[in-house]
Amino acid sequence: MNIIILGPQGSGKGTQARLLSEKLGLYYFETGSFLREISLKNEKVRNLLVQGKLVPDEETSSYIQAYLEGKEKYDNIIFDGFPRTVVQYNFFKDWLKGKNARIDIVIVLKISQEESLRRLGARRQDPTTGKIYNLITDPPPQEVDKSRLVQREDDKPEAIRQRLTWYQDLVVPLIEEMKKDVKVVEIDGERPIEVVFKDILGILGK
Ligand code: AMP
């Protein structure tokens, strides 16, 4: 089964994707961190990421295709943050078809713009472990020294605005497009992590 999880920044899709991958034994493909890895060696990608801009469709698609082909992995994947545009989706759909695979379900976590801004402003990363926390919804355990946590470059206000803009302009129309040929389930993402997770499991019949 291939699952796509989408939602505005701060909707908790990364958290839910990780929980689902653990529970269902799915391979977790996290587009943001995959591209951050590429950005270490590619200055153009790095500049786009820091500004909160999308990496061009063709580039993103071919990086992902090459990566999955290298692993020969086409099924039992949870895709967090890909596809994010109609162009990426059309490419992806055709590519999967060629591998005898498909998208089984799309989960969209819905949160308001205000909540998205509130959560992203509270997001912190542990520079040593890479673990992401949220001071409001998912605070670090007591043993973690909060003063050590840093804010991701693209969680700063200007980049957040950029990311919310392309969500509205590109991802929202994509969700409508996907509804034409895949099961798309929209879920209220403003509830606690475990409540949202239970809801998703129910939808998946697990
Ligand atoms: P995320 O961690 O999912 O918020 O993604 C971090 C950043 O990676 C985004 O702000 C974009 O710059 C880039 N990115 C993530 N997913 C995609 C995608 N599907 N297409 C192009 N760029 C992306």
Note down, in words, how this protein is organized:
The chain is of the alpha/beta class. 49% of the residues lie in helices and 15% in strands. α1 (13-24) packs across α8 (193-204), α2 (31-39) crosses α3 and α4 runs parallel beside α5 (86-98). The protein has a five-stranded parallel β-sheet with strand order 2-3-1-4-7, sandwiched between helices. Adenosine monophosphate is lined by residues 9, 31-32, 35, 48-49, 52-55, 60, 81-84, 88, 154, 163.
β-strand percent reads 5-15%
Strand and helix order? EHEHHHEHEHEEHEH
Strand order of the largest sheet: 2-3-1-4-7
| Structural class label | alpha/beta
Q: So what's the overall shape?
A: globular
Give the CA-CA distance, first to last residue: 13 Å
Main sheet characteristics: 5 strands, parallel
Question: Secondary-structure map with pairings?
Answer:
Blueprint: E1 3-6, H1 13-24, E2 27-30, H2 31-39, H3 43-50, H4 57-71, E3 77-80, H5 86-98, E4 105-110, H6 113-121, E5 123-125, E6 132-134, H7 157-178, E7 183-188, H8 193-204
Parallel strand pairs: 1-3, 1-4, 2-3, 4-7
Antiparallel strand pairs: 5-6
Helix pairs in contact: 1-8, 2-3, 4-5
This protein binds adenosine monophosphate.
Adenosine monophosphate binds next to helix 2 and helix 3.
